[in-house]
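Appendix B, record 7
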Amino acid sequence: MQTDVDKRIAPVPVIVGVFLQKSQVPREILNGAHCPRPMARRRHELMWLLQRLTYLGLNQIGAVVGGLDPTTVRAGIGAVSDRMGFDPNLRQRLLEIEAACFAESGSLLAEARKVVGSGIPLSGRSMAVTVLGVASVLASPHLTDAEARRAALDLIERNSEVRT
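Structure tokens (predicted):
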């Protein structure tokens, strides 16, 4: 079983975007509680990835995938875990999507480091989380460019205040 120490963090918008692209499923699978079985399975796979690659709780994962309750999220994640035990193709596909999420996160992390600049050292867990938060904000499709930059700078300033 994976512990918090073992988890690597990837921004939720990156995970969702990479998953939808690699799985070739429409964004609509994230809306509403009812969808056809093949799409529900894909949504379960996304929930599994969100649990594996983030620190989100079941409530938060449910909110990302259309407002599902924690019991449904737990059942979906369990179904994927069970299927992975006997379907090596599913396991391979999800691990490839995971690798793509971290590759995309790495490029966002590099961009965030440029925003942070050389004035703030990028070391330690809190800085890593801040930089990933900045990368996530900058990648958000729900913010304008100006809003994303303001939010990213606010995150950086707050982290600087805490550390000084």
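Remarks on this record: Residues 88-116 form the longest helix (29 residues). The two ends are 36 Å apart (CA to CA).
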